[in-house]
Amino acid sequence: MNFNFLNKNKRNIDIDDKIFQEEILNIKDVIAPSYVGINQNYIKLGEKIAKSFFIFSYPRYLNTGWLSPAINLNVPMDISFFIHPVSSELILKKLRSKVTQVSSELMERQEKGLIRDPALETGYQDIENLRDKIITAQEKMFRFGLYITVYQNSEEEMREVETTLRSIFEPRLIYIKPALFKQKEGFISASPYGMDLIGINVPMNTEPLSTAFPFVSFDLSSNEGILYGINRHNNSLVLFDRFTLENANMVVFAKSGSGKSYAVKLEILRYLMMDIDVIVIDPENEYEFLADGIGGNFFKISLSSGNHVNPFDLPTPGPDDNPEDILRSNIINLVGLLRIMLGGLTAEEDSILDQALTETYAIRDITPQSDPATWEEKIPLMSDFGEILENMEGAESLARRLKKFTEGTFAGFFNQKSNITIDKKFIVFGIRDMEESLKPIALFIVMRYIWNIVRTKIKKRILVVDEAWWLMQSEDGASFLFSLIKRCRKYWMGVTTITQDVEDFMGSGYGKAIITNSSLQML
User: Fold this and answer.
1) Of 305, 257, 272, whose CA–CA distance to 429 is shortest?
2) CB–CB of 196/79 below 8 Å?
């Protein structure tokens, strides 16, 4: 017997099994929006709105990167270029016809005595220039189409973006329009299908076409280095190593409270992580807590402190150094220091100081002929120099002015042997407690001591000179700082110069030179 109702149930069971066996979702179902609606102004893609635009007019000249402001907008968009090459033979034929036409118009106006038409004359020159470049294969002609599809959440947001795009392009005489009644074609044209369905193309030769290249990067980034910040234009990371530049010097200009010390401290920490030594000259003891926190050394420099730096210290000559050059350079720098300490010097006094310094070293058997390995244990003091001056004819005034540094209140700092050892990765010299009038002198002495260390042992270092305007107050201090900045590259060192008094800094003839010799300027 045939029970139909049983067969019916069997068919239902078979159908249900088939449903489970079929693929319910494919890739299109996953990526497609829940709804697509097309009207004349935009396309509705689920909860989003997509609107397509095209550029239909360009000026005579285009600057490189003119598209970058639009690309860098914080707006989701698709941009597509369609570049269709045009036969040079066909273009030359059309240009010949156009030249004939424009030339005839110019001659006709001249015969009729009409005033000159600058637009017509400029057009004639442009056509001739383009013909010459195409004939010599310097240029080629193309048809260029540029389409933009913007995505927003509402019509109001879309209107704001459209206004922004117009404000970017129209001042450059570049004109953009929405693809009315062609939103579907615009959406497809801006998608990565390679289909130009709008077909709004503008004739353009190679040179202006190259300015539309979208990857004009204003990023400062490399594979090595530290993070300095974020590029506000495109949110990219500013990442680089200052030691890969022409020189590793940097100047930092900012008003008080703007964060310059914070930025420099952050840079210091990040370079310490890269195993680069950092030395700081700190006029306000701002870096003391940083030194304590990371295991560095903080040396307090004042009249009453136990840390001393002998101005007469000499660097240990390297294998390529000439001892005579080192000694002569040190004497010249000491004359500059004494000029700051003793006030203005006459030419005669300058000569006396030079001679006295040479004799002070010679009495201790520190000469170009002696063994440089023995210099360190024979270094003279300021009092030894004072004794030489007292016994020199014509040096009485200099000896009297020097006494306060050898026997007076200042002797506790200026007439002592150096007892500072630089054996940590991070070193800070704090001069906040030094007398105001002595700060430029203390800065000079500390920087000379650091320079001697740098020349003795070459390795990557950063020297931070905070409130550098103290040193720039004197001609000799500014000259020494400039000399150090100019020469430090040979010893793998970069100098960071920080100041908030830009006018005082620039007022010195060396201020501009220091900026010129610094590859980085942080404002």
Assistant:
1) 305
2) no
pLDDT at 21 over 60: no
pLDDT tens track for 183-239: 999 999 999 999 999 999 999 999 899 888 876 666 666 778 888 888 776 677 888
- Token pair of 452, please? 């001697």
The CATH class of 247-309+418-522 is alpha beta
**Residue 26 predicted with pLDDT over 90:** no
Phi, psi angle pair for 38, to nearest 5°: -115, 130
Alpha carbon separation from 148 to 10, 72, 179, 195 (Å, rounded): 57, 13, 10, 14
Q: What percent of the chain has pLDDT over 90?
A: 27
What is the DSSP-derived secondary structure letter of residue 276?
Answer: -
Give the chain's length.
523
Closest by CA to 58, choosing from 139, 128, 117, 144, is: 144
So where are the chain's domains?
32-210, 247-309+418-522
CB 144 within 8 A of CB 202: yes
For residue 81, the tally of other CB atoms under 10 A from its CB is 14
Arithmetic mean of pLDDT, 353-358 = 89
Q: Find the Cα–Cα–Cα–Cα dihedral 288, 292, 298, 303, rounded to 10°.
A: 60
Residue 54: count of CB within 10 angstroms of its CB:
23
DSSP state of 115: P
Calculate what percentage of the chain has a pLDDT beyond 70. 93
Among the residue ranges 302-311, 403-412, 491-500, the one predicted with the least confidence is 403-412
Which distant-in-sequence residues (6+ apart) come within 8 Å of 172 by Cβ?
59, 62, 63, 66
For residue 409, give the DSSP letter.
T
**Interatomic CA distance for residues 5 and 502, integer angstroms:** 99
CA distance 474 to 439: 11
What's the pLDDT at 110?
80
How far the first Cα of the chain sits from its last, in Å, is 99
Going 197 to 200 to 203 to 207, the CA torsion angle's sign is: negative
